Amino acid sequence: MLKAPKSGFTLIELLVVIALMGLLVGGIGFSMRGGTGKAIEASQRIAIGMLQNARNQAIMHGTRGRLIINADKADPDKYLRQFGVIYEDSSKTNYWLATGRGELLPSNIRFVPNYGTNNFSHNGTEGKLDGMRLDYPQKKPQKEGSGSEYYYYEFTSSGTFYNSLAAFIVGEGIYNPASSQSDKIDWDRLSLAGFKILKTGGTIQYPEPSLIKGFGDE
C-alpha cells in the first residue's frame, strides 16, 4: 500500500516564497517613487547641461555667462522651475543676452534655495545666493536691474566657475503661499538630490540626501 505524500512546504520552498515576496514589496516601493526619482535625475541632467552651456557661452563670447533660475514667487508655475542661460554683451557691462527660451523642470520638481546653503559661497558671502532682475527671455541686450527676480550661477570669460565650490540642489516641492518657510515651498526632504560645482565647471554628485547641508535642520 502506497503512503500518501505529506502536505506542506519544505524549508527551501518557504525561503523561496519569502524572497519573492521581498522582491515584490521592493518593486512596489520602487514603482511608487520611481516617477519622482526619474524626474529628479532628469532635472539634474538639465541643470548640468545648462551649466555647461553657460560656461561655453562665456568662453565663446569672452564675457561672463550665467545659469539663471526663476525666483519670482508671483509666478508659481515658473518659480524655482524655469532655467535659462544668458551671457554678457561684450561691448556693454551688465547688459545680457539670452540663448533660447530656457527650460522648465518636471512638474513639482524645483531648485532648492535653502537646503545646502552652508555649501553656497557666492561672492565670498557664505550661504548667500546671488540674484538679479531681468526680463527673460529678451530679444536684445538688456541691462540687469528690472524685470523678474532670478538666482544665478556665473562663469568667467575663461570658463572658470567664479566660486571655489558651490552646491546645486533640486527636490520635489509644492508651492504653498501659506507656508511658514521663506521660499513658500513644502519640500519632500527625502527627494533632495544634487551636486557640487567645482572651479573648473565640473560637478561632484551628492551620494545621498542626508549629506546635503541643512538636511537635518528643522
Outline the secondary-structure elements.
Layout (H helix, E strand, L loop, with lengths): L10 H51 L3 E6 L11 E7 L6 E4 L4 E2 L4 E3 L9 E2 L2 E2 L4 E4 L7 E2 L4 E8 L9 E11 L9 E14 L4 E3 L13
Antiparallel strand pairs: 1-2, 1-10, 2-3, 2-4, 3-9, 5-11, 6-7, 8-10, 11-12, 12-13
Short description:
With 218 residues, this protein is α+β, with helices and mostly antiparallel strands.
Give a verbal description of the structure.
- The protein is α+β, with helices and mostly antiparallel strands.
- The chain is 23% helix and 31% strand.
- It has one helix at 11-61; strands spanning 65-70, 82-88, 95-98, 103-104, 109-111, 121-122, 125-126, 131-134, 142-143, 148-155, 165-175, 185-198, 203-205.
- The strands form 3 sheets. Strands 1, 2, 3, 4, 8, 9 and 10 form a 7-stranded antiparallel sheet that branches. Strands 5-11-12-13 form a 4-stranded antiparallel sheet, covered by helices on one side. It has a two-stranded antiparallel sheet with strand order 6-7.
- Strand 2 (82-88) and strand 3 form a beta hairpin.
- It is globular and about 75 Å long.
- The termini are far apart.
Number of DSSP helical runs = 1
Please identify the oligomeric state: single chain
Extract low-pLDDT stretches. Answer: 22-33, 118-126
Percent of residues in helical segments? 10-25%
* SSE class: alpha+beta
**Number of beta strands:** 13
The major sheet is characterized as: 7 strands, antiparallel
Distance separating the two termini: 74 Å
What is the highest CATH level, the class? Alpha Beta
Q: How would you describe the shape?
A: globular
CATH fold-level name: minor pseudopilin epsh fold
SSE string, helix = H, strand = E? HEEEEEEEEEEEEE
Estimate the mean pLDDT confidence: 81
CATH architecture title? 3-Layer(bab) Sandwich
Strand-residue proportion = 25-35%
CATH superfamily: minor pseudopilin epsh domain
What gyration radius follows from the Cα positions, in whole Å? 23 Å
